[in-house]
Amino acid sequence: MTPEPSTADAVPSAYSLAGVDIEAGERAVTLMKEHVAKTHRPEVLGGLGGFAGFFDASALTGYRHPVLATSTDGVGTKVAIAQAMDIHDTIGFDLIGMLVDDLVVVGAEPWFVTDYIACGHVRPERIADVVKGIAAACRKAGCALLGGETAEHPGLLAPDEYDVAGATTGAVEKEDILGPERVQEGDALVAVASSGLHSNGYSLVRNVLLAQAGWKLERTVPELGRTLGEELLTPTTVYAADLLALIKEVPVHAMSHVTGGGLANNLARVLPAGLGAVVERDTWAPAPIFGLVQEVGRVSRPDLEATLNMGIGMVLVLPVDRAEEAVSRMAGRGLRSWRCGTVTALTGDAAPAVQLVGNYLAG
Length: 363
Prior knowledge:
Layout: H1 14-17, H2 22-37, E1 44-45, E2 54-55, E3 66-74, H3 78-85, H4 91-104, E4 109-119, H5 124-141, E5 144-152, E6 162-173, E7 188-193, H6 202-212, E8 220-221, E9 226-227, H7 228-232, H8 240-246, E10 254-257, H9 262-268, E11 275-280, H10 288-297, H11 301-305, E12 312-318, H12 323-332, E13 337-345, E14 354-357
Parallel strand pairs: 4-5, 11-14
Antiparallel strand pairs: 1-2, 3-6, 4-6, 7-12, 7-13, 8-9, 10-12, 11-13
Helix pairs in contact: 2-5, 4-5, 4-8
Main location: cytoplasm
InterPro entries: PurM-like_C_dom (IPR010918), PurM-like_C_sf (IPR036676), PurM-like_N (IPR016188), PurM-like_N_sf (IPR036921), PurM_cligase (IPR004733)
Keywords: ATP-binding, Cytoplasm, Ligase, Nucleotide-binding, Purine biosynthesis
């Protein structure tokens, strides 16, 4: 009788020879379970590892007319910075910020998130670090990380490459949905500070500072007070929980999440026909990273403003007599904000919906 081969002599599976490591994937799931469990709300049923995640929808019985809200997004080329620096436990804040803060702008509470991580080769500790950041951001937002997928794509992605995306679902009372229908002429615009670039415009930033100027991520930049890599990897601010609390205290009419396309384009999305907005640049000083990109890359101000958030992560539209109260309440939650403009009537068909006027304050 021919003896069976020992484990050491076992023939690799055809799948592993093709570049897919099933055991590494299983180890990654084991490592991430602890982080995921910490995000679970009472409505979450079961644990990680099933074919689907369960969320007890009886929570909807607490609403008079519930409306579900959903959003999906990714992190974009900021993942290239995380990979180059071999720091993977912050990129999750960028993903969750892009997801849940698209829900909060309509007044919806994010309930749960599912994520998707595609990689060239599963390195369990690295995948667990990515999920650790996603879970930490979910806890800050008050939502559950319900499940996800890690997919190994050898030949499509290099061994150390990965991309991350996700989706979120939440709910809002129909009568409480925020948006253009509530906005009125004379409403105040209140800006909420970003932590930096957040997760948008990295193709421009990487091209200008890394490709064209040849700067290294480990380069210490005096204007930034730290290395370029540390600046570029600054996590996105997750606003959801704080803004959900605010709209219970102050009658906010609409909110704009300033992501791809810059301040003017995103603010225009929450303005009704016939109304525009004037944003006063001289009410804030953008962080130094924005000026560096403009100066080093010789980027025009219109191009810069149409790509980057310029230091504003959210804009609230609310009655002018409640603007200072909103600023004060956000300060109490550790968010810096300020009155930055006004909703106005449009004066003609050719007028832009949002006008940025004046010059930025010096940093």
